[in-house]
Amino acid sequence: MSDTPTNDNSTADLRHAIAALADGVSNARGEVAEGKAIDLSLFLSKVSTVCASITSNPPSGADAPMIMNSIEKLVSDLNELGRELTELETLRANSEPGTGGDEI
Length: 104
Hints:
The structure is a single chain. This protein is mostly helical and 104 residues long. The chain has one domain (11-95). Helix content is 68%, strand content 0%. It is built from three helices and no strands. It has helices at 11-33, 41-56, 64-95. The longest helix has 32 residues, at 64-95. The radius of gyration is 18 Å and the shape is elongated. The protein starts with 10 loop residues before the first helix and ends in a 9-residue tail after the last helix.
């Protein structure tokens, strides 16, 4: 049995997969806002699977712009999550004893 995505993507399947990723990003951003550490390994695996699926069978026709807009929004949210993670790590680094920062 192969773990390679099949070429039977429907628009509904792609929209569902992208929406699930967007929910994951939203949840992660909420946890980061609370100062929690997050594990993105499973999430990154899901992103990889969706990307491979889209690469092997790109959306076409009238649905392509809608899928592309969803992907662009997801990328924007991922970039924002990255920025928030960087801020959290900077805050933590500055709060460690001996760094001159205040304790969190």
